[in-house]
Amino acid sequence: MDTNGVVLTSTGNPKLDSAIGTLIGPQIQFGSNPWPFYDQVAAANAAVQIADMDVHYQDYWNIAASGTVGVTTGSHIVTGVSTTFTTTFCQGPSNPTVPKTDASIIIWYLTGRTIAGVPETGRRRMWVSSCISDTALNASLPSDTQPWTSDAPAGSGLKYTPDFYTHLWEFSGAPANFYDNVQAYYALYYRSGIDVYLTAARKLADRFWTSPEIDRGMAFNVGDWFGAQTGRANSTSGLVLRALDTSDGHPDMWAGLHNLWTYTNWLLTLAYPAWSTTGGIDARETAYTLAQAAYGALWDSDPTWQAYCRSMIESSFQTGAAGVFPKNVDPLQQVWLQWFQMKSTFDPGTAWSASTVTLTNGSNIVTCAGSNCGWQASDFAAYDVNTTAGCTGGATCATIPVLFTDSANFPANSSHTDPVSYCYPAACKFVDANHFTLDRPYAGASGTHGWVFGVAGGSLGGTGAGVVGWGGVPYMEGILGWAFDLAAKAMTCTATGVPSNCDNKTSATAYQYSAQTANWITSSGTIPGYYGISFFAGFPTCGNPVNSANLWCNKGYGNLQARELTGDAYRGLAAVYRHSPTPALKTTLDNWFAGMWAKPGTNPLLASPDGQYDVNFDPTGCSGCGYYITNGAPYSQKFFGQHFGISNEGGWPAIRLGY
């Protein structure tokens, strides 16, 4: 520890020290935080999660069933010896061939490696499609209808585990280790030196690594990852720290991580360029994927794989159709947005496809240019912004915004839509299938326009967003910001052409992109007086900045919820401050941190700007407070990782000092 209380890490492994300094960041020694409540909550929440690890997050895949099984490469048939497939996996004796709901079999195949003198076994899941008998069944790999593939050795006499997907490990809203609790434990250990946290980090990392959804990296070959999420649920940062944790001997993890780098390469060089043709990019998933490439580039044990990872980063930053980031940056807002709609001019194969409207500046009248717009009364009804159910009143009841574009051509970016939307907060009036009246006079240019609705047939769709047009989610943009920062570090050359596939131009671009995300969040995504961020921003209905009363963009959240959202965005803004510090950004981050953790009576360095702190992390704060610590799985572990793990939130007290 230095004179400012900042921890000086020296493990004897320079690569591990580098990873700690970058992935966890500079940290004030545990117990010396100038906002003491942050450390108090970190310890309290860690204690809850450690106790819960063997309750809700057990390694169920290590419990073998009776008998043994065999699998053959290229075959769907799993054979058994002394097994009872028709009742274990299927609905016997009445329906002996029909599988139970979500029936799967986890095969303990031999990996071919020997660890500490014991033959190592993997855990590959196959979904049961039918039972042939008590000793034979049909099953397929998770990604599709594939039989057993040759990447995992076939064999017989293997153990197995029946599973019916009822564990919190696979809970899609917050799967195991979400927001990287492994990293949270490592951060606590390297800040405190308390072995309990190191033990917890290793235990959860090893459990996560060997689970069927990771399977020592083999799951990425067959599409079996948590929640079918391409990046965020992989929690790769903590796995890299575990692989580098050589005092406990796990360099064998790199072979499995290479499968993840290969999958990441497919996403960045092929899938994302193809997917992001008209709808923008999912900032969160793309960010975690880019970060995965940076982890490999910076810390893989093999220079060849480091170069491989830098090449995929380089590819994603190329201009043109084959790239990801340059072609998708919005030229008006200068960030990476998504298109939201439920019903519009741009719906192919519908009766209203290519229909347009006639609008006159200063008039409230909207007229379909043809007779095929197909509007309904439900398009102009009110819906609850949280449940999406129809409503007639209440604090979270609102009508759906309507947006107009400059032509019948799909708007390639936000410059091709009107800067404002209509029909919210005041309602528009439905007339008939081809006419309605705006809530206020049209402010745009007279002429023919495309139209965009946030509801179709009384449904707000799976996202329940309600917003329309081009916009983003500030906390997701913050994640993209720190991923850009990692990519910039990964691509930096230390000398000409060193390391292999480095590129200083790409590095500079990545740093610039990181700064753009911070600029957008602070200018468009913050809520004045809340000292936090909105749920949506940049959409025409949101305004700039977002008003706290804007139901669609703030979801009816209060100031504490707006501050909790900063847990995802924090690291992105802190990375920008660390690279290019400004007084304004420091003030923003100070207010965010103090607004969360400056509990009165704890002698914080800076008091909360409005005197409030997050009582959701304080069971002693009031009756019913402390929800994020006391409510249990699955969400308590999510918020532990969010504020103490992947966010690097605990680094701010050191970063603000110039570290």
In short:
The protein has a domain at 60-170.
Secondary structure: helix percent: 25-40%
Number of helices: 19
What's the gyration radius in Å? Answer: 26 Å
Profile the largest sheet.
7 strands, antiparallel
Shape: globular
User: What is the SS-derived class?
Assistant: alpha+beta
- How many strand units? 22
In terms of per-residue confidence, which ranges show pLDDT below 50 for 5 or more consecutive residues?
none
Average pLDDT figure: 95
Percentage beta strand: 5-15%
N-end to C-end Cα span: 13 Å
Strand order of the largest sheet: 10-1-2-9-8-5-11
Can you walk through the features of this model?
- This protein is of the alpha+beta class and 659 residues long.
- It has a domain at 60-170.
- The chain contains 19 helices and 22 strands.
- Helix 4 (181-192) packs antiparallel against helix 5 (195-210).
- The model has no long low-confidence stretch (mean pLDDT 95).
Give the helices and strands, then pairings.
Layout: H1 14-24, H2 36-52, E1 68-71, E2 77-81, H3 85-88, E3 90-91, E4 95-99, E5 104-107, E6 110-115, E7 118-121, E8 124-133, E9 136-140, E10 155-158, E11 160-163, H4 181-192, H5 195-210, H6 236-244, H7 253-275, H8 283-299, H9 303-316, H10 325-328, E12 338-340, E13 343-344, E14 357-359, E15 365-368, E16 382-384, E17 397-399, E18 402-405, E19 429-432, E20 435-437, E21 447-453, E22 469-471, H11 474-491, H12 504-524, H13 551-554, H14 559-564, H15 566-579, H16 583-597, H17 627-630, H18 635-644, H19 652-655
Antiparallel strand pairs: 1-2, 1-10, 2-9, 3-4, 5-8, 5-11, 6-7, 8-9, 12-22, 13-21, 14-15, 14-21, 15-20, 16-17, 18-21, 19-20
Helix pairs in contact: 1-6, 2-18, 4-5, 4-6, 4-18, 7-8, 7-9, 8-9, 8-11, 11-12, 11-15, 12-15, 15-16
